[in-house]
Structures are given as C-alpha cells and as structure tokens.
Amino acid sequence: MYLQKGVICLLDERKRKILAAVVDAYIVTGEPxxxxxxxxxxxxxxxxxxxxxxxxxxxxxxxxxxxxxxxxRIPTYSGYRLYIDELMNAKELSDExxxxxxxxxxxxxxxxxxxxxxxxxxxxxxTHCATVVKNISPKFSVITKVEVIPTGKRxxxxxxxxxxxxxRNKVCRLEFxxxxxxxxxxxxxxxxxLQGVPVDELSEEIVEQLVAAMGTYMVTLAPLLKGVCELAExxxxxxxxxxGEKNLLARRDINSGQIVRFLENKNEVVKxxxxxxxxxxxxxxxxxxxxxxxxxxxxxxxxxxxxxxxxTLGVIGPMRLDYAKVIPYLxxxxxRITEMISEEDQDDEDK
Amino acid sequence: MYLQKGVICLLDERKRKILAAVVDAYIVTGEPxxxxxxxxxxxxxxxxxxxxxxxxxxxxxxxxxxxxxxxxRIPTYSGYRLYIDELMNAKELSDExxxxxxxxxxxxxxxxxxxxxxxxxxxxxxTHCATVVKNISPKFSVITKVEVIPTGKRxxxxxxxxxxxxxRNKVCRLEFxxxxxxxxxxxxxxxxxLQGVPVDELSEEIVEQLVAAMGTYMVTLAPLLKGVCELAExxxxxxxxxxGEKNLLARRDINSGQIVRFLENKNEVVKxxxxxxxxxxxxxxxxxxxxxxxxxxxxxxxxxxxxxxxxTLGVIGPMRLDYAKVIPYLxxxxxRITEMISEEDQDDEDK
DNA sequence: TGTTAGCACTCTTTTTCTTTGAGTGCTAAT
DNA sequence: ATTAGCACTCAAAGAAAAAGAGTGCTAACA
Lengths: 351, 351
Fold this sequence. Notes:
Chain A has helices at residues 4-10, 13-29, 35-39, 48-60, 77-87, 95-104, 112-127, 180-194, 204-212, 218-237, 245-249, 256-264, 266-273, 323-350; strands at 64-65, 74-75, 130-134, 143-152, 155-162, 167-173, 240-243, 281-285, 296-305, 308-318. With 351 residues, chain A is of the alpha+beta class. In chain A, strand 9 (296-305) and strand 10 (308-318) form a beta hairpin. Chain A binds chain B through residues 108-109, 111, 114, 144-145, 147, 149, 151-153, 155, 157, 159, 161, 165, 167, 169, 171-173, 246, 249-250, 256-257, 259-260, 263-264, 348, 351, and chain B through 108-109, 111, 114, 144-145, 147, 149, 151-153, 155, 157, 159, 161, 165, 167, 169, 171-173, 246, 249-250, 256-257, 259-260, 263-264, 348, 351. Chain A binds a DNA duplex (30 and 30 nucleotides) through residues 32, 34-36, 46-50, 52-53, 55-56, 66-72.
C-alpha cells in the first residue's frame, strides 16, 4: 500500500515459509504458534527475533492474529486462504493410499450415486470429519419408469426409477381394488407421459393436467398420480446428505450446540454452498457466510459426466483441517469416480 | 433387617412422600435436594429436622445418596426404581394432549411400521429425548412379493415386499439381458418358493438350494437370487432405529463422548434392551448393564397385534427424565397404535 | 541494511489461600 | 415423636500471588 517496493517484499520467500509453518503447526496442535517453535524447524535458519519481525508484518497484512498480546499467532481467514491457494504442499498420494481409496469405491453397482455415497462414507472415516453429498441434480435425473404393484387389499406400491439409477417407492392405499385393465392403463399412461421427464419438472400442475386428461380412469387413478408426485418430490428433497456428523461432535474446537443447529437445517444451509457456478474444487469457510458452524470449513469437489455435474462430494471439518491431506484424498476420489462413470458408458458402447 | 418392626416403619407414608418429593424435585432441577426445600412444599407439614432424620433413613436404605457431606440428597438407582414402580403419580392425559398425540398418528398408510415411526418422531419432539424403534420382528414379517423390473442395459431392480408393509429394493447388474421368459420364470419361481417365508429364515443355504433347483435358468438367475438374499438381510439388519439423538446432545448432564460411542454401535447396545421377555412397559437404567451412556434411562413399550409383538417403541433420556409425563405419553401412543392396527384388520374383514 | 541477543513488559494460566454458604448431624428441649 | 439450635463439613466462588510463554523494542553486530 504505502510503498510499491513493500508490496513485493511482503511476500518474500521467507515470510511465505513462515506463514506456511505457522499454519502447519496450528493445524496440528490447535494452539497459538510462537516464534520459538517456528525457529526450531529444520528448514528455517533464522533466529526467533527475525521470525517475530516477520510475524508482525504478516499480522499487519492480516494473515495472522494474536488471541492476546503474549500469545503466539494463529492464522486468520485470509491466512488460511493464502495457505490453501499457494503455500501448502499437498502430499502426493502413495500407491498404498491410492489402493485403499480404490477399494472404497468397490461397489457392486457403480452408479454415480452409489459411488459418491460410498466415497462419502470412506472419507468421513479417513478424515474424521463430516461429509456432504449432493447427488445428481434432479435437473439431469430423468424418470425412466413408474410401476404400480399390488401388495394387499387395496394396497399398492408405487415405484419410480430414474436415469441416475435411483429408486424410490411409496405405499398407496386406495378406496377400491384396481382391475388388471386399470393397472395396465396406468402403466401405459405413465410410460407415455412421464418417461423422460426430469424429476425436477414434475410439478403438481403437470400432475393435475395428467389427471384431467385421464378420462374415465380419473377417479380411480388420481390418488396414484398424487403418489407419483410425492415420489418425485422425495427425489428433490433428499438431494443432500450429510454423514459422519459424529466426527464433528468429538472435536473440542467445534461447539456442539452449533452442530445440533446445523443438523437441524443442514439442507438449507449446505444448499447454497454447493452452488454449481464455482470451480471444480473449492474451499468454503464459515466466514464466507451462510454456514452455521463457527470455525469450520468445507471442501467441495464436483464430479462430472459428459461435462455436466453428476454429483458433489465434500468434507466438513474444523477450520484447522489437514488440508494438505484431505484435498488430495478428495481430488483423487472424485477423479476416480469421474473416470469410472465415463468408463461405464464406454463399456456400454463397446457392446 | 434388624427388627421386624423396622421393616414396616421404613416405608411409612411420610417417608414415601419425602422420597417422592426428592425425586420430583431432582428431576426438575438436577441439583441435590435439601431438607429445607422439601419442608417448604405445601403437603409436607413437618420441620426440616424431621425430614433430615427421614432422609438419613432413606439413605441408609439405599434410596438416596449424598454427593458429599454438606450437600442435599439425590436419588439412587433403587430410589428411581421405587419412585417409578410405586411413588410417582403419573399424570392423566388431558383431552388436548390426547388429541395432539392422535394427530401425530395421522399417517396416510397406517401400517404398524409407519405408525411406530411416526410416533417415534413425535415423541422425540415432545420429550426432547432420543427415541428408539424396533420394527416388527423379522420372525413375523413374511415375504409377500418379490419382483424384478428391468431398468436399463443389464440393469434390474429387485423389489421385496413384506407382510408388514415394508418395501426394499436393490439394483442388480447382470452379465446378460434377461429374456421375457426368464423374467416370468423368476417371478413365478419366487412366488412359489418365497411367498410366505419369514424374512428371518431366508438364509444363504436356502438360497443356494433354490439356485441348485432352478435347472437351466441357474446360471443367468443366480445373481438375482443373491440379490434377494441381500434384501432379506437388509430387513434383518435395519431392525432398530434411533432418532432424535440430537436432543441428548443438547443436555449438559449427558456426556457427549458417550453419546458418540453409543451412536456408533447403537444396534448392538439396544438390541439386548429390547428383549421380548419382559412386561409390556419397562424402564431400563444404564446401571442395568449393557447401556453405554452413563446416567441415562430407557423406557420401552411394546406394541402387539394378535398377541404377538408387532413392534417396540422407546424413549432414551437422562436418568432424571420426567417419567410421570413420558410414561403416560408412551403408554397412550402404544395403546392407540395397538388399537389402530387391529382395527385395520377388522376393517379388512368387514369388507 | 538485515539479523540477532537481551531484556522489560504483558497477559493468560495455574496455584494457593480465604471466604462464603448451603446443608447436615447431633443434642437438648418440647 | 418432633423440633429448635448450633457446631461442623465441604464444595464452590473469589482473591491474591506466582509462573510462564511470548512479544516488542533497543542496541549491537556482520
């Protein structure tokens, strides 16, 4: 700001090294980091005094802060940002690690959703964090089949299957038993009118139109159509899943009251965060707004298929998350999933 | 013990009143209760000194204890037991309360499972505790239908429906596409061999026998049968559900670390507790063994249909739970559910 | 000019000591 | 049998003191 020269000197190699070291240490210990600790690191060859000077500068620039005068420094919001964007050295995954992660993706039916789900569970185990999953956007998820199956007196199971391999069912209780003919009509009618419709677009209005156009079958079959509508809603609502929340509870640096509040309306909260507009991997801090849990961060990575976003996988953890480990994990997993779901297509084309 | 006369005098009316008052007060405040507090209650007409004497006796008998010399008394394990069994005056439900609880049971398809589930959610809201549900025992849950539905290249959805109205599905990926004839055979074969079989009994052995007896269809259809087997397993494993755990987290008197451990293996832990052998309503304390969360209690109530246990509904909360309120709630709900699911049968028979 | 040793200073954390107060148990009186 | 009175106990709250970690600044040094 003050002098052009300054601007360059601020980011000099040593200061970057020191900032990185502070963040590294803080991530491990959770305690404010002092000059002495940094000075004792092998690849820092200056005295604590020098480091103190540099840290003072880093503080002025807003990368570090002191909880109180006589404490060490902790990274600020922008400190973390700089660390993640430029300073941290993301560990290369070893072959064993890759193998372990591959094993996590070994599910019998490798649909995008199943893979993402499986990766999510593995991630929350490995990182001791919560994970968040946004399955394929309902925009891209298309109804492939609607079935009705009798299952008792006046009881019917409605079944909806989507292009993303998702299945949902619902029990309907009707006023009368359906004749075979009615059931056949229903199946045909559904196939003709709903096949290929994105679950997103199946509004109540559309259903009402369909009911109106059913003619004689209207009275008997309307309740079923209502059920279909509810099924589609279910697909929309259940878009986002958070798992491994218990890992957050175990942490002392995260307020458990806030976790409870977060769990109560996680969908609302996370929805904004999983916006499609950003890059393929992004790190969001609670300071970025909307996020309920103080002092937490979320790393989100997208999975694509044919260029379109097929799902999103993320990790929610404390601010002082081991980014250098978690980010490569997340990148590797989403990378593999992306490969696998496009391989799958090739597979089919080969045939 | 020492003198016969003692044994009678120990349970004299006043002492019972005092014990009840101590437990009542402790349940509300969570603080040790002193003689003065008790003396100030309207229907106690003796002095603090007298109460102190009585409390000393109650302590000797093991119903009360002191955290330290100069503190009030808190109930012991057996204190609670006596309170629940004999002393507490369970509140009669008002009409409004009954109506509210009835509303909670207003689901569109009143199967036993759906009702219990719904009651469970309502209960955890109303009591601010966790609730536990054991759905109908797989022993009584019988396979009514197995369907296979094609849903893409070599992809099939298996659907299993049980007598308790439960539905579960699974995607199977086969090596080859099935012919219509194969699918029809499968449906018929399932209907002939599995209809009426309790999900409990569908072991791998049985499936292997079925596969062996399939003749020419063996190779193609074996993977589907394996899927059927897994579905049945799913019914067995998912027997117990705990919900509203977050309510426990909010409580300061329950260790959150223990909650986490409890959630990790809730099924194991709760399974023992929901033993069918006891009476229809039982209260279990963590001291009774097996239960991980210290200082907690669980109230369990059974729902029957035709004399058989059709499900179990319970509340998990702190030791100092408001039993006088929660027990009537639980009893009313399970009572209503029991009525509703037998009504339903009558309904069907009327027709 | 950049680096460093030295030192006074600040502010949290820990420890120790003191005070307070709720509640008891016992004794003697009713 | 009940109760008032009183000495006693012990946790919890508060105050004061000591310890310790880390800083910023100054002055010396290469």
